[in-house]
Amino acid sequence: MTPTSLPADETGTETSADIADLGLAWVPGFSTLGPRFFTELRPTPLSSPTPPYWVGHSERVARELGLPADWRTDAVLEALSGNIPVAGTTPLATVYSGHQFGVWAGQLGDGRAILLGETAGGLEVQLKGAGRTPYSRMGDGRAVLRSSIREFLCSEAMHGLGIPTTRALCVTGSDARVRREEIETAAVVTRVAPSFIRFGHFEHFAANGQEDALRALADYVIDRYYPACRATERFGGNAYAALLEAVSERTAALLAQWQAVGFCHGVMNTDNMSILGLTIDYGPFQFLDGFDPRHICNHSDTSGRYAFNQQPNVAYWNLFCLAQALLPLIGDEELAVAALASYKTVFPAAFEGRMRAKLGLTSPDEGDRALIEGVLKLLAAEKVDYTIFWRRLSHCLADGNAEPVRDLFLDRAGFDAWLLSFWERHAQVPRAEAADKMRLSNPKFVLRNHLGQQAIEAAAGGDFSGVATLLALLETPFEEHPGADAYAGFPPDWASTIEISCSS
Ligand code: AMP
Ligand code: MG
After folding, report:
1. Is residue 34 situated within a structural domain?
2. Residue 109: exposed, middle, or buried by beta-carbon count in 10 A (0-12, 13-18, 19+)?
3. Ligand nearest to the CA of 112
4. Residue 470 lies in a domain
5. 110 lines ligand 1 (CB under 6 A)
6. Does residue 282 sit in helix, strand or coil?
7. Is residue 116 domain-shared with residue 215, that is, in the same domain?
8. Residue 27, SS3?
9. To 10 degrees, the CA torsion angle through 78, 84, 85, 86?
10. For residue 352, what pLDDT is reported?
11. What is the 3-state composition of the chain as percent helix, strand, coil, each rounded to the nearest 5?
12. In testing the pocket of ligand 1, which one of 108, 132, 305 has its CB within 8 Å of the most ligand atoms?
């Protein structure tokens, strides 16, 4: 023992550190925008007689951040729960506004997320659920265990699927109690992304008539994330119109991926739209079980504004809000309209491309749209399980056995007719290459509500193994994972009774 350290029993705690060092180099990022954009503050420690605990963690994200191999120390556990500071950081909460359910909601902001800082590797690290901020309004600044596990697993599931998303390093849990519909326990998600800037950040400064702040924000985003917009010859060299077009295109590409994989976001408010085209703010999301285009996954969404088949149009509506916010910088309504127009060509082309890949088709053909529409119609008519259908169809292409996929339909004649056109189309495509493409475009594992629910219930009882098991499957969802078929089966009957609302 060295003279400077005391054994645990003499200090009275396991952790003698009052500051944690993640071993990361932190650089000025969002903070360079200045105090109009945020409030500096420290996370509020979770008050509980018992120390926080690890609920789940991603070694993949740890590696991307450049954390050392033994990063999960007690001090880091305390720091990522908001209980002690992280060396080298000046935490802050950012201000934004937004449209919620189609209605201007005014100022919102990071009500429970606190940005620790940006790493030299260009990743921002944020603690979600780390206490109240000046933007908390009526909220308590906390996040409950169940929604934190859902966000953690879905972030990593989306990444595993190849879909742009904010990431999650870990969830730490605590016995601190929080009130929702019932009393629950608090957790913190450590989120990671190149930037957490939302459409709502732009709307905020536009709505307040702060044009110089709006310009500073747009310049920051262009310089850091969309440098090509500076050099554009499009729109008469208007960098802000080019930014709007680039964001529209990324958003279109993202929505194409959501629709192709059957992902329902549930709360596509403009404050939940990433300026980088990332999936952000996992709340009442759902991967479709049976294919129902009108599915509403958010129990609070009584009008179905964010139903599955509305998502592409809602994204466009949200981009329109962004366009309005950027208008003072673009300076010409016609340019803004022209910049937005790309969405209407990029989305259908990207969606068709994704669906073609799901069908194992390596090059386009004019009959593809009919093939895609035909199969979606069949799936919708009987609400066939979306993920299982596509995975079985992949196997069918590989081994020629159509029975398992045919078994999914009551309307056998309808399916057989479609399958014939599928085989005819594949007569022109090399089979092995197509089967590989299909397998890599049709996941075996998605984060179905009931799977998340089972992991959450176990975790609430102190067993975190279900979270780790799901994470391992969802990180590589296109692999077979022998022995894990139970996670790739049909949802149980009770799955349809799970109600997920905005309460988190
Ligand atoms: P969401 O619908 O989760 O994206 O949240 C919308 C707004 O409400 C954001 O400004 C959040 O920061 C804020 N918010 C949500 N839950 C809480 C909470 N428990 N405490 C403080 N703010 C919250
Ligand atoms: Mg949000």
Report:
1. yes
2. buried
3. 1
4. no
5. yes
6. coil
7. no
8. strand
9. -20
10. 98
11. 45, 15, 40
12. 108
- Alpha-carbon distance of 272 to 258, in angstroms, equals 15
Report DSSP letters for 45-62, one per residue.
PP--SSPPEEEEE-HHHH
Average pLDDT of the segment spanning 55-63: 98
Residue 235: inside a domain: yes
Q: Report the pLDDT value the prediction gives residue 16, as an integer from 0 to 100.
A: 52
Which of 53, 100, 48 shows the shortest CA–CA distance to 80?
53
**Whole-angstrom distance, CA of residue 484 vs CA of residue 473:** 8
Q: Are 422 and 442 in contact (CB under 8 A)?
A: no
Tokens of 218: 């747009």
Q: Among residues 289, 309, 341, which one ends one of the domains?
A: 341
Q: Known catalytic residue: 271?
A: yes
Tokens, residue 375: 């199969």
What secondary structure does DSSP assign to 296-354, as a single string? Answer: ---TT-TT-TT-GGGHHHHHHHHHHHHHHHHHHHH--HHHHHHHHHHHHHHHHHHHHHH
Please pick, among 110, 271, 281, 301, the residue that the annotation labels catalytic. 271
Tokens for 370, please give them.
């009919």
How many Å apart are CA 462 and CA 486, to the nearest integer? 22
Where in the sequence is the domain holding 307, given as residue range(s)?
200-276+298-341
Q: What is the pLDDT of residues 331-351, one digit of tens each?
A: 999 999 999 999 999 999 999
Ligand 1 pocket check for 201: Cβ under 6 Å:
no
Statement to judge: residues 98 and 208 lie in one domain: no
Sign of the four-CA dihedral 155, 156, 162, 166: positive
Same domain, 322 and 381: no
In a domain, 151, yes or no: no
Residue 126 CB–ligand 1 contact under 6 Å:
no
Distance 318 CA to ligand 2 centre (A): 14
The one-letter code for the residue type at 140 is D
Ligand nearest to the CA of 128: 1
Give the residue carrying structure tokens 């966000």.
151
Q: Which residue from 170, 44, 177, 203 is spatially nearest to 112, judged by alpha carbons?
A: 44
Residue environment code for 66-75, b if the CB has 16+ CB neighbours within 10 A, otherwise e: ebeeebeebb
Domain match, 34 and 123 both: yes
What is the total count of domains within the chain?
3
Structure tokens at 22: 């993640």
Q: Is the CB of 281 under 6 A from ligand 1?
A: yes
Residues 92, 76 within the same domain: yes
- Average pLDDT (184-202) is 98
200 lines ligand 1 (CB under 6 A): no
Q: How far apart are CA 114 and CA 270, in angstroms?
A: 20
User: Structure tokens of 5?
Assistant: 């350290």
CA distances from 211 to 327, 329, 473 (A): 10, 8, 47
pLDDT at 431: 85
Alpha carbon of 112 to ligand 1 centroid (Å): 6
pTM of this structure: 0.96
Among residues 423, 439, 455, the one where a domain terminates is 439
H-helix segments, 192-292: 199-207, 211-225, 239-261
